[in-house]
Amino acid sequence: MIKGQYIRIFSNMNETAGRVVAASTNMVLHISATVENSSTKDTTGDWVENQVTGLQYDISVDALVVDSDSGASVLNDALNKVGDAESVAFEIAPASGDKQRTKGSTICSGTALVTSLQITAPNRQNSTYNMQLTGKGELVVPA
């Protein structure tokens, strides 16, 4: 079993491939199927019949706002990517090494758009940000 603190997201947000999103405190990958009701007048009973018409995914990353390391750089890069039509390549993988920044075997990868960025700065508490990525194309899961 791999503990959550060892699963990291790596991106090429600033054209540097495989850079870890530093100071991350949480990451969620959500995969869902879109369905369409395929019930007909011939369908018996009260249950509808659905068929899958597509797949989609999104990623949510929570991180601390830091002014050193690559954390501030990732935040600046994300600010410049919100609403940009250019997609960002990413990989989700276990990490090891100094500060958990060496990428291990890829769990999944793909490209996504930065669709939302929220910075929270409460008085006398850590500043954080939440970045939402919406998948663009296939989510690749190695065999």
Descriptive labels:
143 residues; 8 strands; 1 helix; single chain; mainly beta; Thrombin, subunit H
Can you walk me through this structure?
The protein has a single domain (about 5-35, about 55-135), classed as Thrombin, subunit H. The chain contains 1 helix and 8 strands; from the N terminus they run E-E-E-E-H-E-E-E-E. It has one helix at about 70-80; strands at about 5-10, 20, 25-35, 50-65, 90-95, 100-105, 110-120, 130-135. Strands 1, 2, 3, 4, 5, 6, 7 and 8 form an 8-stranded antiparallel sheet that branches. The protein is elongated, with a radius of gyration of 18 Å. The two termini are about 20 Å apart. The relative contact order is 0.24. The mean pLDDT is about 85.
Structural class: mainly beta
Biggest sheet descriptor: 8 strands, antiparallel
Helix proportion range: under 10%
Instruction: Label the CATH architecture.
Output: Beta Barrel
Count of folded domains: 1
What would you call the shape? elongated
Strand content: over 45%
Unreliable stretches (pLDDT < 50, length at least 5) are none
Q: CATH topology, which one?
A: Thrombin, subunit H
SS summary, helix count: 1
Average pLDDT, rounded to a whole number, is 84
Q: What gyration radius follows from the Cα positions, in whole Å? A: 18 Å
The first-level CATH class is given as Mainly Beta
- Distance between the terminal alpha carbons, to the nearest Å? 19 Å
Number of strands: 8
Topology pattern, helix = H, strand = E: EEEEHEEEE
